[in-house]
Amino acid sequence: MDAYGRMCGMASAESTQASVHEPDPVRPTQEDKVAAAGSELIGGPLGRRALLGASWWTPVRVIALVAIGMFALGLVQKAPCYNGAWFFGASSQYTHACYSDIPHLYQGRGFADGLVPYFDKLPGDMQYLEYPVLTGVFMEVASWLTPGSGTIQDQEQWYWMVNAGMLMVCASVIAVCVTRTHARRPWDGLLVALAPAFALTATINWDLLAVALTAAAMLMWSRGRSLAFGVLLGLATAAKLYPFLILGPLLVLCWRAGKWRAFGTALGGAIVAWVVVNGPVMLFAFEGWSKFYTFSQERGVDFGSFWLIMAQNSDSPLSTDTVNTLATLLMLVCCAGVAVLALTAPRRPRFAQLAFLIVAAFILTNKVYSPQYVLWLVPLAALARPKWRDFLIWQACEVAYFLGIWMYLAYTTSGDAHKGLPTDGYHWAIGLHLLGTLYLCVMIVRDIFMPERDPVRRSGDDDPSGGVLDGAKDVFVLGPAARPARHAAAQFDGPQVEWGRQGADGSL
């Protein structure tokens, strides 16, 4: 009987420990009024069995299928262009809002002629492919899978379709990674899967490759796999420039928590991965490899940025060099602001929050804010502030801009007919999508200063995307937060469930 009693006691202890370390998944329809209202369209809030994955319809599978379905709707939206607008009318691809770079660059960047990116010169002024190496590889692989028979229009259609299939895989990876990053909040992945701007802009360019690698890197960091995070982030940076910015907030957060080893491992993995991809091309085709960086430096102000509004309303627009300098200074100011925020906040900010803010700062201060740049922010927004109301407000602004830019281009290419949106109207569209992004930034900053209003922390978590930062004590804090009486994070040394008790009454 004593042995039986000990076994029962051990089982009870294990059960208690599991209940502490494995709290119930968060039900978004119980904590988010918009999610609850929206769920009525599909039969009402989900029950416990659905959340726990008791059937085949687990959150990951549901969200992956929804993401594929939304991606397919985005492809249908491009149907007017696929059926001729890309080839037979400059303005019709804008009036139908179905423009894509992909078919145009098949011939324009030498893929139709079998030219090797970065090594073979292109005809015309461009000379070399102006994309990072890993994106160039993606484009080249798609050209290998494109049938070389038929007219050039047939080949361009196939090239777009092949790329669309490859980008659909990227979209699925993004949705799955976001779903699995916050273990207790899998249904936040629906924010990505159902994002209208995500579906509309997914096949404009090749940005989804870098976004997928970044989302996978965030998942690895949340699991405490610093090296895998670094490698994936290095690959993402080899596909697009923006992912490396995430290392800045991570540096400051690891500084505050004293997690130098994890950051060093991540940084080393990122550098090695980037060098492995870029090194051979740098060595044997440096001029072609450097085209992306020189093009980014030399291009003037472009669509979607506040710099364009200034230029089009000025009799003497700023030179490109001046804009480069001012944009860089603005970005440095934003970086300093994020660093101060990370070190002085009353509770250490979550990794996803600062990642969103730094990428948003880069986009907002940049010379160009292309419509597909929203793809960079969607997965980070779902992790940083999983609140349907704010997410949909931001998405509405982005959809309005998506329509605005094509209507403006229709206006400028329709000749004397002037069909579309005039310049003043386009400036209002730019202002709307800039304000939408700023609005989400403000809400995230408010969450940082008022953690009790953070949807993630209010449900009982600390930093589920933070990996080694999750639940860690602070070792370096500045300002009022450094005082022990007001520094809630420094008082935490119990199991994760304690955060739930602290957040239940809105206190820290």
Automatic annotation (TrEMBL):
Q: Where can this protein be found?
A: Cell membrane
Q: Which InterPro entries match?
A: GT87, UCP010361
Keyword field contains Transferase = yes
Q: Which Gene Ontology molecular-function terms are recorded? A: hexosyltransferase activity
| Broad class of where this protein is predominantly found | membrane
Key words of the record: Cell membrane, Membrane, Transferase, Transmembrane, Transmembrane helix
Q: How is the protein disposed in the membrane? A: Multi-pass membrane protein
Which region ranges are annotated with the description Disordered? 487-508
Q: What is this protein called?
A: DUF2029 domain-containing protein
The record's similarity note reads: Belongs to the glycosyltransferase 87 family.
Entry GO CC: plasma membrane
Q: Name one Pfam family in it.
A: GT87
- Give me the segments passing through the membrane: 56-76, 158-178, 190-221, 227-255, 262-286, 323-345, 351-370, 391-411, 426-449
Coiled-coil annotation reads none
